Amino acid sequence: MKLPIYLDYAATTPVDPRVAEKMMQYLTMDGEFGNPASRSHRFGWQAEEAVEIARSQIAELVNADPREIVFTSGATESNNLAIKGAADFYHKKGKHLITVKTEHKATLDTMRQLEREGYEVTYLEPHTDGLITIEMLAAAIRPDTTVISVMFVNNEIGVVQDIAAIGELCRSKGIIFHVDAAQAAGKVDIDLQALKVDLMSFSAHKAYGPKGIGALFVRRKPRIRLEAQMHGGGHERGMRSGTLPTHQIVAMGEAFRIAKLEMHDEIKRISALRDKLVNGVKDIEQVFLNGHPTKRVPHITNISFNYVEGESLIMALKDIAVSSGSACTSASLEPSYVLRALGMSDELAHSSIRFSIGRFTTEEQVDHTIKIVHQAIEKLRAMSPLWDMYKDGIDLNTVAWVAH
Amino acid sequence: MAYSNKVIDHYENPRNVGAFDKDDVGVATGMVGAPACGDVMKLQIKVNEQGIIEDAKFKTYGCGSAIASSSLVTEWVKGKSLAQAEQIKNTDIAQELALPPVKIHCSILAEDAIKAAIADYKQKHGG
């Protein structure tokens, strides 16, 4: 077995070889390298045709009209365009926006920027299972609320919000509903004919496509309008200027085509691997699964290992590429804001690991992971003064710690 | 984050992990840090009648640098008098382990752990 084992598919996925093969055909002189906006020759026409096929493939995965798909550089840009674009366009109607504390930074930081520009934002606090309720949302809505943004699948804990119900509420109130679906496309069924979602963000690289390309679904009926955030040649019906990167778009189309074809088998296979992983570690004492137990995707599993610090756990799991609920590995020493928003203590948030399983994960890799996790927990707990105190029956909350 | 080989060595083969009987007359304990900050260090020293630290043990909840820093100080304090051990500076620890700037607090915590253990000894033995 090749080490390290990649279990960080929620961070990014490798490009599917079928996608890479397709992508390479749109780069060189021998391939279709033309500018899709060139109207005066074959090179342009053929590139445009390839882009339109990809647009249809993306629309098909989520049951949308291809004319509702706007290409962007990724889900971060899609979130920016959706939220800023809609807030700007409808600002005369009101300047109040609603989102959730556990959203991706691409949403939260966009909201922060809008606050600096004079908007008011309500950040909903989810239940400890990571989900918000319709009642919570209804209570936050004001007459001047214009945009609500809620992610489909949470990137850290994998819980799935009730997008259908939230959509019904938003539509009944005439509020624009944006959904960040970066972690959802190809992982859960999305039917945009049925869901009352006005704007939805997609990313290619979370679904075996390349990095640097994404899309924003912009509903036509009822028509949603956006203030462009990127100005230039008027590409993408004026909503997002910039020469279309044909090779990336074709690759995203191919990735989404494969997802539509294979996602149901893949979900079954990944669910079985997830069950194996969870069953393999759940008997360790003081281990907790984070997020709602059933309203979740099988790809993302977030587990807290109490009395073991996250970064040292990641070091002990050096043959397994996972990510920590603690941001100790990055420049800041703060624990994950997502886990904190669930009401989790700092120390438990510090002790959390996200395992994300994907298309190329094997049973053998999961077995090895279980073994390594057991060894790591045993080693680190043998070294942990907190574990000793827990074993001695000392409640850590009663200890007078000296914060530093 | 790229750690130095010394940090990785101490993390993978920590020296002197364990605990002494805290009621033993020559044993003193220093516990510093807080779980909420992601680091707790427990350092124990065993001091002989001549006032020399004969042995030291640690247990640490924390990142690789915190574990390495505490492992290192257990080696450093052994054979030293209390006064000498008190001279160990966090900058020496950080330098020895080539800690990156964001991990300097781990070396500060290790210095604090030595000082806390010595203070505990002095308190136990009437100052």
Automatic annotation (TrEMBL), chain A:
Positions of modified residues (N6-(pyridoxal phosphate)lysine): 206
Active site: 328 (cysteine persulfide intermediate)
Role, per record: Master enzyme that delivers sulfur to a number of partners involved in Fe-S cluster assembly, tRNA modification or cofactor biosynthesis. Catalyzes the removal of elemental sulfur atoms from cysteine to produce alanine. Functions as a sulfur delivery protein for Fe-S cluster synthesis onto IscU, an Fe-S scaffold assembly protein, as well as other S acceptor proteins.
Protein name as catalogued: Cysteine desulfurase IscS
Domain Aminotransferase class V: 5-367
PANTHER family on file: CYSTEINE DESULFURASE, CYSTEINE DESULFURYLASE FAMILY MEMBER
Localization in the cell: Cytoplasm
Catalytic activity: (sulfur carrier)-H + L-cysteine = (sulfur carrier)-SH + L-alanine
Family of this protein: Belongs to the class-V pyridoxal-phosphate-dependent aminotransferase family. NifS/IscS subfamily.
GO MF assignments: 2 iron, 2 sulfur cluster binding; cysteine desulfurase activity; metal ion binding; pyridoxal phosphate binding
Pathway(s) served: Cofactor biosynthesis; iron-sulfur cluster biosynthesis
GO cellular component: L-cysteine desulfurase complex
TrEMBL record, chain B:
PANTHER family attached to this UniProt entry: IRON-SULFUR CLUSTER ASSEMBLY ENZYME NIFU HOMOLOG
Residue ranges constituting the NIF system FeS cluster assembly NifU N-terminal domain according to the UniProt record: 2-125
Record NCBIfam families: iscU
Functional description taken from the UniProt entry: A scaffold on which IscS assembles Fe-S clusters. It is likely that Fe-S cluster coordination is flexible as the role of this complex is to build and then hand off Fe-S clusters.
InterPro entries from the UniProt entry: ISCU, NIF_FeS_clus_asmbl_NifU_N
Any one annotated GO CC term: cytoplasm
GO molecular function, one term: iron ion binding
BP GO annotations: iron-sulfur cluster assembly
Name the record gives this protein: Iron-sulfur cluster assembly scaffold protein IscU
Protein family according to the UniProt entry: Belongs to the NifU family.
